[in-house]
Amino acid sequence: MESKQTGFRTIDEYVSQFPQEIQDILHQVRRVIHEAAPDAKEKISYQMPTFDFHGNLVHFAAFNSHIGFYPTPSGIEAFQGELSAYKGAKGSVQFPFTKPIPYDLISRIVRFRAAENIQKAKSKGKAKGKGKK
After folding, report:
1. Can you name the CATH fold of 11-121?
2. Where would I find the YdhG-like domain in this sequence (predicted)?
3. Eight-state DSSP code of residue 100
4. What is the per-residue pLDDT across 78-110, written as a single tens digit (0 to 9) for each?
């Protein structure tokens, strides 16, 4: 089910390459991310739908049997207990099509990542301000 097109410019282009039932899931994942991080900007990165908020926030993608969700290693670590029911790796998790997609969990992970990125941005700002008078 992986798309054959490369060089996507928008999330809409990416989503349109899949069968309708997968498009519906991708649209819902996108909505959940927007609701959890309304100021995040959409882009394509690594040829996947990506949300940027003070840096990369999360990526997601459709595969043959699952939705891949990429909230960075810190996002996986923070929700390790809830994500233990799914296949995954250091910075990713696979939500299989054979189970309901855990939209509420995705939302909580996105909110966690947004807060984390805000904190990192503030820390960088403070570091840049040091030494200035």
Report:
1. Aspartate Aminotransferase, domain 1 (3.90.1150)
2. 23-113
3. -
4. 999 999 999 999 999 999 999 999 999 999 999
